[in-house]
Specification:
- It comes from Proteus mirabilis.
- Pfam families: DNA_pol3_delta2, DNApol3-delta_C.
- Its EC number is 2.7.7.7.
- Helices cover 62% and strands 3% of the residues.
- It is mostly helical and 218 residues long.
- It has 2 domains: 2-46, no CATH class; 99-217, Zinc Finger, Delta Prime, domain 3 (Up-down Bundle), CATH 1.20.272.10.
- It has a two-stranded parallel sheet with strand order 1-2.
- Strand 1, helix 1 (12-23) and strand 2 form a beta-alpha-beta unit.
- Helix 7 (131-149) packs across helix 8 (162-169).
- The protein is globular and about 65 Å long.
Length: 218
């Protein structure tokens, strides 16, 4: 049994190597490919797989289970953790136990940087081993800001970060959309290009966004 987590994160070379293995698999060997975005996989790779959709439990059941594991958990924290984990309770529990304080520090630093128009100051936050994770958190906040602009706060992912979402929602929609797209491309590059200069790429992203903020204030 071979389990590959986040198979969509494989480079093209790795995906092609996997494809060759799937074409002539070892005897009595099964491959489990975990994938959140099957549409971005190579078509030839998808054609050799069976699809099994694993639906998450309903929110109220998932929250109840999380409260049993963490009796002191705030309701908004539980909802947010589930939203950030695509509704998967075990992943949400892992987030709450292992990364929640780091996320809190990241969100606080982002809020301060926005107020000071010093987004480059976030480089130390981003330039870590889990940079892709930080970008995912940022993208969810940017999309929440767009939702707030359209009075759709009930659908916000980060229910525990309303002040930060409100601050981001003061930015023009066009800027939020452009910045979101830019960070998506940045994350894709970090995931798919092994030898990329991560610090330089992140610095460029932050300086570009900071320049847009400064220009907006003039």
């Amino acid at each position: 049994m071979v389990w590959i987590k986040e198979v969509e994160a494989l480079t093209e070379a790795a995906a092609n190597a996997l494809l060759k293995t799937l074409e002539e698999p070892p005897v009595n060997c099964y491959f489990l490919l975990n994938c959140q975005q099957p549409e971005i996989l190579l078509a030839t790779l998808r054609s050799r797989c069976f699809y099994y959709h694993l639906a998450p439990p309903e929110m109220n059941y998932a929250i109840h289970w999380l409260q049993q594991q963490l009796p002191n958990m705030a309701y908004a924290d539980g909802v947010t953790a589930l939203n950030l984990s695509q509704g998967a309770p075990v992943l949400a529990l892992s987030l709450l136990k292992q990364e929640w304080q780091e996320r809190e520090a990241f969100c606080q630093a982002l809020y301060v940087s926005l107020q000071q128009q010093n987004l480059y100051g976030l480089l130390a936050q981003f330039n870590q081993d889990n940079a892709e994770r930080k970008i995912y958190w940022l993208l969810s906040l940017l999309l929440d800001a767009l939702k707030r602009q359209t009075h759709a706060e009930v659908y916000c992912v980060n229910q525990d970060k309303q002040p930060l979402i409100m601050a981001l929602s003061q930015l023009p929609s066009a800027m939020l959309l452009a910045v979101s797209e830019s960070w998506k491309q940045c994350r894709h590059q970090l995931v798919t290009i092994p030898a990329i200069n991560k610090e330089l790429l992140l610095a460029e992203q932050l300086l570009d966004w900071e320049a847009q903020l400064v220009a907006l204030g003039k």
